Amino acid sequence: MLYRESGQFKTSYDADQAVFPILQDRLCIIAILAFAFLAVPFFINDYWANAVLIPFLVYSLAALGLNILTGYCGQLSLGTGGFLAVGGYSSFKLMTSFPELDMILVLGGAGVTTALVGLLFGLPSLRIKGFYLAVATLAAQFFLIWLFYKVPWFYNYNATGQINVFPREALGFLVTTQKADPVVRYLFTLSIVVVFALAAKNMVRGRFGRMWMAIRDMDIAAELIGIRPFLMKLTAFTVSSFYIGVAGALIFSVWLGAAESGETYGINESFLVLFMIIVGGLGSILGSFLGAGFIVLMPIGLKNLLVDWFGMSAVFAKHLEITTFGVLIIFFLIVEPHGLARLWQIIKEKLRLWPFPH
Amino acid sequence: MLFFMETVISGLLAGIMYSLVALGFVLIFKASGVFNFSQGVMALFAALTLVGLLSGTVPFTHVDNPSFAIPAWAAIPLTIIVMIIVAILIERFILRHLVNQEHIILFMAMVGLSYVFEGAGDIIWGSDVKVIDLGLPHGAWDWLLDTHGLYIEKIELVAAAAAVVLVVVLAAFFQKTRIGRALRAVADDHQAALSVGISLRYIWIIVWSVAGIVALVTGVVWGAKSGIQFSLSLIALKALPVLILGGFESIPGAIVGGLIIGVGEKLAEVFGGEVIVAIFGRWFEIDPGIFTATENWFAYVLALIFLLFRPQGLFGEKIIERV
Amino acid sequence: MKLRNWLVAAAAAVVAMPLAAVSASAYELTIPSMDYRTGPYAPNGIPFANGWTDYWTMLNERDGGINGVKIKVVPCETAYNTKQGVECYEKTKKEGSGALVYQPLSTGITYQLIPKASVDNIPIHSMGYGRTSAANGKIFKWVFNFPATYWSQASALVKYIGDKEGGMGKLKGKKITLVYHNSAYGKEPIRTLEELSKKHGFKFTALAVDHPGQEQKATWLKIRRDKPDWILMWGWGVMNQVAIKEAASIRFPMDHFIGVWWSGSENDVKPAGAAAKGYLSGAFHQPGKNFQVHRDILKHLYDAGKAPHPDFKDRVGEVLYNRGLVAALWGSEAVRAAMKIHNTKEITGAMMRDGYEALDVDAARLKELGAEGLTIPVKITCANHEGPRKVAVQQWDGKAWKIVSDFYDPDMDVIQPLIDEDSAKFAKENNITPRDCK
């Protein structure tokens, strides 16, 4: 009842090709965006910005990127952390080399750099498949992390290899460092993520997305109908790395403000982002957000629940949190291997009939 | 020259240490198609359990009570029993529900499982560095060092011996016993194995138990070097390049892959800087120290290069693709 | 259904959390404790966190707080992870009456918090770690890194080596190798050691070990080939244990092997057992529990059943325990100083900063505190946030750590320019005008 599309007639090609062809979807999206842009800024404080919302948004962006590669094009990658690092360090280099550059351009530059690096590491994907590829992308992960420690040029020859962000503006608003208003930083991140999400949504339902999915479903068959796997895999690597690069730059500049390659962008990040898209749903834009939300918010929520409500000691709560995290992930994979996005689909089906299911 | 030999021998022995970890992966992958990422944490968990029993740690309190200490001859079988129980639990609560899922889902479930092991290990046994004392030898092989100036660590020889014993026992187990034949049947074709009346669940429990025992050996040998502590779980990452090099399904592959990786990375770490300076030093000023700490990535790059020529690994089954 | 319950519970917890934080009651001195009792570095994090927490709690139990004001220690688990550290910081900074000082404990978290400190007005005490150039109080107003930095320590250790070799002149032609954790932390001493090698003419090589350092055979094969006279180590976590074991295996003389003070705790030498005997490390405080303050802690906390972590009674007095304790001791003195300066009992983070800057704990005061000889006297000034800059060397005798040398002063001719250069760079990049410290 709530979610019935009957009666919504499409009378033009434009209407037929709309990103969200169903009225309810459109309303829902508008409501969420309005809430995020207009309501959230009123109750946001440092804690919400730094510990909850900005991490959620940034990881959503990274998950979007990985989802394009893994969910849509079927190329398993464990090099996400390394690509995030490329984004972070290239944004640092851009910021220091061109102090006047607007943050939006810095992020774009970081994305492009990462895209090129991703292109390079995507080359083996034509020959190597499945798990072998996943492990091969670990080569990228470890190599890049090592590189950012070992080549002093990347961190401007300082003593330690830690990089620090400087006050920088985007369109006249200060968006980096702790001095920036949390509201501004949040809105900045949000706008970027929204733009990128819409772009991704359009991309995956367009020509490229369809070709990627063809490759994912069966690359040989796709090749037979005239899709060039090499080109498509490389474009997937490039686009995905672009997203991940921007996310990496945001992690460094807007969220954390300081970074160290192995510590901020370590192998754990690769697994976390992969978790996000699997728990959220492979091959789903919505899934990237749901997955990021789950993986980012669940530990924080659990921690606060255990420590503040049940009064457990911080250390026991942490151990319990790690265990519960593992259990929940296994539980999810068992209950719904297609992820949270699939759950949402089921709910939609239910809502279509509700309240008269028979 | 002697030093070069020393490097190669150390590489071979380190490679065997990697193979030990990789063995556990291969066993499980062969029998159930599961890429068991939690093998590293299993090694930690098994070793923690053994140390806990040996030193009489009361579970969940992290306090040692020497009067509960159990001698090694009893503690080792007890640990094995614990690992078998763990295998049964894993089968009961995870694998059974994930039959026929895609590889990646199984893989992520195993990563999830490694979190469970990590948390459980911490809760039960505490997160301190523990010292394992099973009378394994320490230090260099004195005779060789004194007479020939050749440096080889005794613990690595023990590891090599353990690996040889494990491989022989596993080979015998796979080739000669009834269960072994069933295992091979399952590895070849789940459906066919089921249809001739082999119980998949039973086989899985066996395989996971064996992997648990391999994990115990790995944990003890690695733990003898560093003490038993959380970082032990990260040895899984050392095994991955070995696996892709050797092929996921092959036990000989795990051994040969380990040896290649071990020698390769030791040579790279020791001589890499000098080689680079020798080649590029004419044009650029290069600090030979730049090529240190390569052990994390070099193995992966080495494996990647091999893969470009043999995408299924050295001993992996040929990938046949049909439309 | 189950799933939805979980989600609802998680969401509810997130929503309810800031509400819980707001409910403030009477004024308490809020001391956050950034513990890392989990993760790969937990073995080191546990004793430090115990020492830090125990001392504050003991003040509550023995004296009823500081000047009658109760102390509230707020633990938060960071797992030595930067991102969790940020969450912890944001969560605890407004806790109760507002956090007074952060002891971030990881290099990564310290670098995170340095820019935040000046905005949130909460001082940071990165005791012997973190950013070295923060020693320059003119630029890093909110950061304190007394009693000594990595650079001072590197220099002091070289002085010790010089002493053992029979004078700094004898260093010429000697080989000193640094084995370091490949991270920001491990790289800290490199520049100083390079400068010193130029000055004294010893040959310096740096060998990196990648995280976690479980496997470092190749590094030690190189050392076996190069036969350095001395090895310095900036190691952390499992790297320490493996390195000490490998060094013993290649028969490197242990008394020529010096670790940084984070590589010199009971945990690091335990797995190597007897082979580690003679191993040295930097130190700025005594190990052991033969001090009045330890007796007080045992009496008022552990024996009275009020210890926050009663399992660890045997481990009171370990090297890292004492380090946490010393940090808390200086912190409590800073609280007193702040109360005195501002003539109030309800101090804020900003007042606490003034307290740290006016900190003056001399030998007599240490004695009053029941910690005679436990550590060196500290006096902080506006320009010098590194304080005394004194480093001694301690040795593992197979059973316990013992300080075996004098306290060395670092070679400030070499270090001061480095600090000035690095802090000036920071000031320039962040548009900070140095304070006038008159």
Instruction: State the strand order across the main sheet of chain C.
Output: 6-5-7-8-9-12-13
Q: Total number of helical segments of chain C?
A: 14
Share of β-strand residues of chain C: 5-15%
Give the helix level of chain C as a range of percent: 40-55%
How large a portion of the residues of chain A is in β-strands, by DSSP E?
A: under 5%
* CATH evolutionary superfamily of the largest domain in chain C: Response regulator
Which stretches of chain A are poorly predicted, pLDDT < 50 over at least 5 residues?
none
Globally, the shape of chain C reads globular
Number of strands of chain A: 4
Quaternary structure classification = heterotrimer
E-strand count of chain C: 13
Mean pLDDT of chain A: 90
The SSE order of chain A reads: HHHHHHEEEHHHHEHHHHH
Task: Find the structural class of chain C using helix and strand composition.
Answer: alpha/beta
Strand order of the largest sheet of chain A: 1-4
Shape of chain A: globular
Task: Give the terminus-to-terminus CA distance of chain A.
Answer: 12 Å
Distance between the termini of chain C: 67 Å
Determine Rg of chain C (CA atoms, Å).
Answer: 22 Å
